[in-house]
């Protein structure tokens, strides 16, 4: 049956007990145990429950902390991640940056978790522009959520939990496929495992000996006397394996000579020459086709390979542990920013099988990437559907039927 029962607005401290966490005494913290979760904001992620990386307290430390029961909603009210939420799936304790709401009998615990997510923007706004964003316990307790009847709360929470389950299943599947892909890459790209029919010797080739390394890309500026172009940026390369017409989105201008010098052609490999850490430098992506009207940024280095290279193979060849170690070793910096010089890039060595084996390796890995990309698209759609459901269900714009079993 459907329900037409009106919803009411209720303060958090009227529908549950609000408590602020505390950090265990120094003596206790120096001897963490293995029994009880101690949760900080870093342990709350995109998923509903606390991450498994949370620290554990000994029984002594737990006994001296403010305990939060299973079913409580956890809400970050201090710091840069203010507004982040989670749910306790067991008895635990939190640090002082987290307020917990322990629901009373009139409130479904899962509904409270989902309804609390609607407060995230409000909490961030109330925190203001302070050096350390903060909403104190009194302010937090006064925030209100919309509350339908308990049976309707359960139906809404069940629908959103089903959506969360689908998202979690997709995330686990993607993580599994990515791990498999990483294993395949480490085998095929190092020659430890050969695809059927290939036995030829591999060469080791320095980039500077097998193509042209160039920098000096285009600035992020607009000049009315120049031609409008699209700029391939650092993060475009950092996030991608392959670059197509839709990868770059920033619009700038460039002179005709600069456009010619900084063009993007099929098979071009782009590297990130700087990073905050040495082990994250020289990330790469490969142009899948000629991209007219696209130029690369001055924050990138381009390698235009000579003959005998397969673009699909090159999309993965620079992701091996051995290549990453080379780049990391060459990175020079002061501790806040590291850079690989142009001579350094020219000296980097990459394995070069025969072109037919490159094509076979590239095709194999691209099949796995296509599968992962399809799963990511499904995940994005599922997340968008959940967002839409929350906007409808948690405001009462859309009402779900409450059957007799649930109502009872």
UniProtKB/TrEMBL annotation:
Q: Which GO terms describe its biological process?
A: DNA restriction-modification system
Q: Name one GO molecular function term.
A: DNA binding
Where does the Type I restriction modification DNA specificity domain lie?
A: 7-175
Provide this UniProt record's keywords sorted from A to Z: DNA-binding, Restriction system
The keyword Repeat appears for this protein: no
Keyword Hydrolase tagged: no
Read off the InterPro entries from this record. Restrct_endonuc_typeI_TRD, Restrct_endonuc_typeI_TRD_sf, Type-I_RS_S_subunit
Residue spans making up a coiled coil are none
The family this protein is said to belong to: Belongs to the type-I restriction system S methylase family.
Protein name (database record): Type I restriction modification DNA specificity domain-containing protein
> Which organism encodes this protein?
Microbacterium faecale
